[in-house]
Amino acid sequence: MAYRYPHFTREILRADLAFRGGPMPGWPLPDFDLVTTDGTRIRKRDLIGRRPLLLTCASVTCPMAMNAGPGLRHLYAEFGDRVAFATLYVREAHPGEHYPQPDTFAWKLAHACAYRDLLGLPWPVAVDSLDGDLHRALDPRPNAAYLMATDGTVVFRALASNDERTLRHGLAGLIAGRPLPLGERQPRLLPALRAIGVLDAVLDRRNGCVPGGFWPPREGRSPPPRSRPLRARDPRGMRRAYRPSRYRPCRASQPGEDRVVVAGVAVDRRHGV
Known about the structure:
alpha/beta; six-stranded mixed sheet; 10 strands
């Protein structure tokens, strides 16, 4: 599978559901020396023996990365005086007409600047090489987070950086001096549910409101209308099969709708956040 894929596919979706390799907790974080969107550089060697680092992966076409901003800013306000924060801009998670996979580094840097400005991030956004040298060494998941101790080793990693509670667990454990490494977390459903609130904006920005390529269609079938899989009312059979109380629900995005269905899971807004 090419690293800079032109279209999102079901194979990529399946691969992104779990870590497949990369540095596990207790292993050294790969070395890096990267340019940032403000023209400076961030280097691993400059952090060794000084400050831990929370490194998150992101792209402007990744809904979970775009949804991660508020939670990461909360964590930065709480831990930023003791932990360095940085975002690694990687390949486009869902390339489209307006944000295709860049074929030059300058183009990728422009995408990274757009991401930084949209979220208003106060920490460095480092831009990976065009072919993702660091991202591939980490295990190329679109929105993963790695917590590095001052000795350069990974002490905690999470599959999704829009899971504020999970990242707070890792940061608090490191600051409190708990035995290292702290392990890893690979939540799937809840980070995806949290990203629903920014999904329409990401689609509009990515591809001019054209849904094709975001949810990979089955062979011989056209993609469904963008609003249908996310805002359809739940049929009675689905309501019996999936009890909303088993999941943390989210609010439906249109007034008068009782529930949304995501990945076959019915979410009742009457129990919403």
